[in-house]
């Protein structure tokens, strides 16, 4: 099927009964909601079917709703939220009594609330749970070389609660847990991923869909949103003005197909931004 360049989601929406929509870069930029995108989801709900937000946020879904209220994302533009953090919590629930090293900022501590685990230091950890950088405003993977080397020396597995490499925050791209996981794999470390593009998270999506059969994924990340949808057998729409905005020099079919080829991603359509 040739790639379609869309101005309006309404042009293809009738073919689907569920949307699987990314959050960062599609619904908001980490500071402010994109009002037309939120309105598009609300209209799809009213006319066609369920909207499932699928995020690689390393936090429970309830934490995202708190952010939505601050950013201005209306709570009635979706039916449910599935997060990599929620899937990670299920993994940790099976590790009762484990001692974990949390590699990430304090704002992600809600991930562990109510779980039978003990947070500890590197020397005493059974496993590492990575939700991001301690300070993602100033740090990069190179700042963690010694720590990752020490983790590898102890043969610790790293549970990555956010496979994204970067996320859009305001007008900047901020590194995510996936960048640390990739650096750890480069050292030969074992990584367990929860979230896009890995197949298990789509089992959570289907379970939350209310029996929908015709899914359409919407996202701005080729390696996560689009490739994840491809692997799950779900049609995808690429949002060009998200994290790959600087790479989309021309909003044309040949240019976009060349960009997709770099990651092996495929989409049925592309839009500059999500608009009904």
Mean pLDDT score: 93
- Strand content is 15-25%
Rg from Cα: 19 Å
What CATH architecture of the domain at 86-193 would you give? Answer: 3-Layer(aba) Sandwich
Look at the helices and sheets and give the structural class.
alpha/beta
Unreliable residue stretches: none
Question: What percent of residues adopt helix (DSSP H or I)?
Answer: 25-40%
The main sheet comes to: 7 strands, parallel
Order of helices and strands: EEHEHEHEEEHEEEHEHEHEHE
Which strand order do you get reading across the main beta sheet? 1-14-13-12-2-3-4
User: What is the CATH fold-level name of the domain at 86-193?
Assistant: Rossmann fold
Helix count from the secondary structure assignment: 8
Total beta strand runs: 14
The CATH superfamily of the domain at 86-193 is known as HAD superfamily/HAD-like
- The 3D shape can be described as globular
Q: Report how far apart the termini are.
A: 22 Å
State the CATH class of the domain at 86-193: Alpha Beta
Task: Briefly summarize what is shown.
The chain contains eight helices and 14 strands. The protein has a seven-stranded parallel sheet, with helices on both faces. It has a domain at 86-193: 3-Layer(aba) Sandwich (Rossmann fold).
